[in-house]
Automatic annotation (TrEMBL):
Name this polypeptide is given: Uncharacterized protein
InterPro entries (UniProt xref): CHP01589_pln
Pfam assignment, any one: A_thal_3526
Superkingdom of source: Eukaryota
Record's compositionally biased regions (Basic and acidic residues): 93-107
Region (Disordered): 1-37, 93-120
Length: 120
């Protein structure tokens, strides 16, 4: 995995710090119970969108949000999957542009017709 620049790391920290408090003073991380789950999900969604701006895949995003925003990977993964469902065309194009399309599947994942036959 390519190393992220210092400025990218600082951007996540600034974003997290900027949005760490709700207008009523409650913490976004939910430690004090004053924030709503919907607010937390919106925060995670916003941070995933930042990851996408940095061309990260889901795994890189999960690692980054865990390290810099202390968001559990299962939360990031769940929100990412929901975003994929709601924005199927975008994510198909995004994965294709990143080189993650179906042409990168292992031979066992390829359809039988696509495999080369050396049985002759």
């Amino acid at each position: 995995m390519p190393a992220r620049s210092y400025s990218a790391d600082r951007s996540f920290e600034r974003s997290r710090a900027h949005q760490a408090r709700l207008p009523d003073g409650g913490a976004m991380d939910g430690d004090d119970g004053s924030s709503s789950p919907a607010s937390y999900i919106r925060l995670v969604q916003h941070l995933i969108e930042k990851c996408i701006c940095y061309k990260m895949n889901k795994e890189e995003c999960m690692e980054t949000l865990e390290k810099h925003a202390k968001i559990m990977p299962v939360i990031t993964s769940t929100v990412w999957k929901e975003l994929e469902k709601e924005n199927r065309e975008f994510f198909e194009t995004y994965k294709k542009d990143r080189g993650e399309d179906s042409s990168h599947k292992t031979p066992s994942e390829q359809p039988a017709a696509a495999k080369s036959s050396d049985d002759d």
